Each structure stands twice: as structure tokens, then as C-alpha cells.
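[Discussion] Sanity-checking designs against the backbone

I'm trying to build intuition for which residues belong where. Below is a C-alpha cell string of 183 positions. I'd appreciate it if someone posts a full sequence so I can compare it with mine line by line.
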């Protein structure tokens, strides 16, 4: 009698283990599939990847002349000032992915008293340079640089729990018009 009872308990235990494994694997598959929905395929911004996307009429600059931190810093400061003043939208490219969604989220989710500060420019990589016609001056051309900037930033605001300070490292992709060519 005792051995049959042990066999029944073993079968129930092994059945419970198998069911638990199926549930865990099923949850893992669902979570994995759900997580994939949030990952979009975005190629890494390398000079080769960016070179394929030149505006109409633009001519690439070869070799690329890398911009320095000192050249990029003022453009990044202007962008951060625009964020702090609530005038970020005009600074975003028309091709910026979900531009409206970003500005709407900032308007509704970011605390009104939030301030963003640039702490340090950590890395600068010039991805692309090209010369294009200057729409403001028909006979002139301008040099455009597309630059990836890694920067340490900090946001500060007064929250429900008091003063909040959050630091982070962000990548900014900037389009910098830094030189006019021609009359």
C-alpha cells in the first residue's frame, strides 16, 4: 500500500513540475514576444550608414573633417536652452521620428519647473559632411555636418517628494551649419 501511495505522490509531483515548467516557458515566450514589439530596427549611425542619405543636390565632402567638442558645444547648448524654454519643436528635424509625440510628451509629462543642464560633452563623431545650396542666398553654398554627440546631462525639478536631480548619458544627433561657401 505504501509504495503505491509513494508512486501517486511522485506522479503528482512530476506532473506539477511539468505544468510549472510549461507555464514558465509560456510566460517567457509571451514576455519575449511582447518585448520585441518595443524594439525597432534602427541602424547604428556610422559614416557609411549616414552617407547613403544625402539631400537632393548635395555633394559629399571627402575626406570628412571631424568637428571638435568646442565646435559642437554651442549647438548642444542652444538645443538644451530650447528644451528648457519649451521651444524644442523648431529645433527638431522634420524627419525626426515621432516628433509630435516627443513634444506632446514633454508638454504633458515633464514637470513645468524641470531644467536640463549639460554637464559634459563626452564624445563627438562627425558622421557626414556635405555641401548644399543655401536657400537664403541663391548663389551661396553652405557646409553641413551631421554629428553624433554623447553628453552627460542632468535634469532638476521640484517633485512631489521634494527636489529631484537625475543624471544621464544621452546621444544627440545634430545637423550643424557651420560655414558658408561662396559670395
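Best answer:
Here's mine. Compare freely.
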Amino acid at each position: 500500500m505504501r509504495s503505491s501511495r509513494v508512486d501517486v505522490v511522485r506522479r503528482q509531483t512530476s506532473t506539477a513540475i511539468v505544468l510549472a515548467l510549461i507555464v514558465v516557458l509560456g510566460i517567457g515566450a509571451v514576455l519575449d514576444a511582447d518585448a520585441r514589439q518595443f524594439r525597432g530596427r534602427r541602424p547604428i549611425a556610422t559614416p557609411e550608414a549616414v552617407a547613403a542619405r544625402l539631400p537632393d543636390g548635395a555633394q559629399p565632402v571627402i575626406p570628412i573633417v571631424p568637428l571638435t567638442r568646442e565646435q559642437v558645444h554651442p549647438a548642444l547648448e542652444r538645443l538644451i536652452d530650447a528644451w528648457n524654454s519649451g521651444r524644442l519643436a523648431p529645433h527638431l528635424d522634420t524627419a525626426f521620428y515621432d516628433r509630435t509625440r516627443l513634444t506632446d510628451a514633454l508638454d504633458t509629462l515633464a514637470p513645468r519647473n524641470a531644467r536640463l543642464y549639460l554637464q559634459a560633452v563626452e564624445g563627438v563623431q562627425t558622421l557626414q559632411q556635405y555641401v548644399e545650396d543655401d536657400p537664403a542666398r541663391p548663389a551661396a553654398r553652405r557646409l553641413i555636418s551631421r554629428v553624433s554627440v554623447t553628453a552627460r546631462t542632468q535634469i532638476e525639478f521640484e517633485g512631489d517628494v521634494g527636489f529631484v536631480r537625475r543624471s544621464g548619458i544621452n546621444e544627440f544627433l545634430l545637423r550643424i551649419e557651420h560655414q558658408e561657401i561662396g559670395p
